[in-house]
Structures are given as C-alpha cells and as structure tokens.
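Figure caption, in words: inputs first, then the predicted bound structure.
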Amino acid sequence: MPLVDPATAVSGASQSASTVFPAGFYWGTATAAYQIEGAWNEDGKGESIWDRFAHTPGKIANADTGDVACDHYHRYRDDIALMRALSLNSYRFSLAWTRIQPTGSGAVDQRGIDFYNRLIDALLSSSIRPLMTLYHWDLPQALEDAGGWPNRETALRFSDYAEIAARAFGDRVTDWIVMNEPNSFTSVGYLDGQHAPGRANILAFFKATHVVNLAQGLGFRAVKSILPKARVGTSVFLSPVEPATLSEADKIAAIRAHAIINAWFLDPVMKGVYPDPFPISPEFIMNIRPEDMALIRVPLDFIGVNVYTRTIASAATRAERFRDPKLLVLPVKMQIGGDDGPKTEFGWEFWPQSLYDMVMRVTRDYNRPLIEITESGCSYSDGPGPDGEVHDARRVEYYQKHLEQLLRAIHDGADVRGYHAWSLMDNFEWAHGFSQRFGLVHVDYATQKRTIKDSGKYYAAVAAGNALL
Ligand code: FCB
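Bound structure (beta-D-fucopyranose present):
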C-alpha cells in the first residue's frame, strides 16, 4: 500500500504553479551494488576492489564490510515493496560488474545476469523505471591487478562489459547511466587513497581520469550500438565552487577548482576538450592519443547530476606548493562545504543553494541539456524512538529546501526530468562503513528490519502529489 494514496493526495493542478513539478517527473531513490547487495561471494561473483579493500584491516571505520550490507541480494522484493510504499516511479541502481564477469573480462556468469533480470522484472511489474548504472566504483580486482583505471586496457574491458549489459537487459531497460562520479572514484581511489583501490599517486590519478573519460565514451558507444533508442547519460558529482576570499588569487583558485571538480569529466564528453586553467597543463602526463578526444565526445541523452554541498577554494602559497606535489600541479586548496550553514553528520555543510547553482551552471555551460538529479541527500543518524518511528526532522528539512531550490532552477529554465534521493535506505557508506546513515528508510543491521523514516513519508507525499509540500 502506498503511504499516500495518489487519488487523495493534493493534486498538482490545484497547487500554485511554483510548487508543482513538470508532468511525468521521475521521483526515485538511488543506491549502488556494493553499498546494499551483500552476497559478496555468492553465485559465482568475483572479487571487486571494494571486496579487497574492505577486507584489508584498517581501511574501513569499525572494520565494517559490504559482505552482507543490506542483504538486498536476497531481499530485493521487500525493498521494491518499500519503493511502492513511497510512491516512487524510478529506481537508480548499479550492476556489480563482478557478478556478470567475475574477472572483468571473458566469460559471463549467467547467475549474475539472472539476478538483475529478476530485479528489473520486479521493478517493471511495480511500474518503477529501472535506471541502471553500469559502474558505481566496484572494479573487478583482476583488472586492478592488471593496472586498474590508469591502464588504458581497462577502458576496452569496460566497453565489452557495457555491450554485454546492453544485450542482456536492453529489451527492458531504456535508461542507462554509464558511470557514477568519475571525479570521486579517481580522486579518492587514486589520489588520496581513502577509497579502493587505495593508491595515492598523482600520476596514476591523472592517467586514470583520462582512461575513465575514454571508458565513458566507449561505454556510451557500446550501449548505443546495440540499443540506438536507449537514453544514455552519465552521473557526475558537482559542487559549486566559491573563493574563500575576494582576493584575485582565490578567485583564480575557484576557477581551477571548478575545472578539476566539475568540468574534468563534463568538458571532454560534451565538448571534446579538457579544461585548462592550470599553470602547467596536467595533460602531458595523461598519455592522450590523437584519436581519443573524438572518441570521448558523445551526445549524452542526459546529464546525471549529484549534488551534496558547495566547495570553498583558496590559492596554495608558494611554500605549500613546494611541500606537496599535488599542490604543485593543482595549486588549489579545496574544502568541501563552507562554514556558514549547519553541518550534516557527514561533516558536509547544509547549503541547499548548491543544487540551484550547479543545475543552472550545467544548463548555461552545456547548452541546456536534459538533467536528472541522480543523487541528493544527507547523513543523520536518527533511529527509531520509543514509539518505533524515526523522527528525522533535519532530513525532512533537507529535502524540502533542496526541492525548493530545484523548482527554482526549473522555473529559471533548467530542463530537469527527475530527482533521486540518496538513498533508499541506510547502507554501507564506503570508508565510513555503516556509521553514516543517508537513507529515507532506517536499517537495523542486526535484524535487517527496515523502518520508513519521517523523511521517507514526506518524500512519498511529494512524489505522490508531484508537488512540493
Ligand atoms: C556519493 C556516492 C554515493 C554515496 C553518496 C553519499 O558521492 O556516489 O555512493 O556514497 O556520495
């Protein structure tokens, strides 16, 4: 039973125009395979870099792993029932590459295909659109052993895998996302080393960024070659950058930070070039071949926008630059989130205008592309109270304020077709393990009991009425 009966929900038409979302708007939630599925070595699944990383002592808070996570692999039907209860009509999820090709190349394991077939069929029979992400960070370990994302071959393996997925699911899946947040997984995985595969090497990072851009172009082409009518996009982490002070140096730092955070994976796909506001262009360490930029540039059907907060940039001093090779190449210090708004428990500043700013920037810079918000959410640890309910008022406010900003962007001309809350339920938050809860649904990890939070009920009412409440 939906929590809100669409028939009795406030009808969009009777609301003032400023609170109503466009007709046919997609209301969904987003998840990722490693963060929810569990069943890490079941039914022939191969090892991914996240399996290896999480099993390495000291990498994840509280030694948590995604071995079981939300046990979604076995409970996906219950989880789809939750989506129905939330009145949702879209679900963004990712495929675990290692369920489909356990070593990232060669033979396909039919059991992996079967699992996603069951999931897709169950979504469709609940009238929920499957929005499928091909890659949400869980590279097959065998490919990492062969050099990982800095190795050009990985782009070719990815393209093969995209083709396999298109052939297996394309009769029912019409909407595809090639990558999730290339900027995050290359920087946190290859530059900072806080995420799998845990490398901290600026050379590896820049090479990886180029191979991932190439993989994105090749993956898009692979899906389109099999499914010319499919809608294929990609999802990027975006954050509006503001200078820390009004100094000229900080303003330049903000332009550079925007280039590396927001444009490094959008300018190549949309325009066929890398942004170049740096004193020395990093391109000389990226092994770019003459034909690459033409392969990378593809006509995306939509841009998936993930926004959480803004970024504050300041210029690195001369002394700082010579102390840190990262700052030598990128002379910018970046702080995720400013200090004016309250902080979520993840430490990120609550700054709803970020969503408006980034949607408008993408609209301006890339000629009004079709946009789907593919992630937006916050971490607060509220759990069930004495009444058994989860009163997460701060998350309710988060969605209210962010959706208000989204409506403002739509009214100012952005072409936004959907919104996906991160996340359906609390899950394995990468290096933070289970300590950070982003869900609309609370998960008791000891029992796997799910409880819809107040924010879930609020979101359900918005989705049912297609209007802000
Ligand atoms: C995004 C990731 C997603 C989740 C949220 C909180 O950067 O794409 O998997 O971790 O952050």
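Residues 32, 35, 180-181, 184, 237, 306, 375, 422, 429-430, 438 surround beta-D-fucopyranose (CB under 6 Å).
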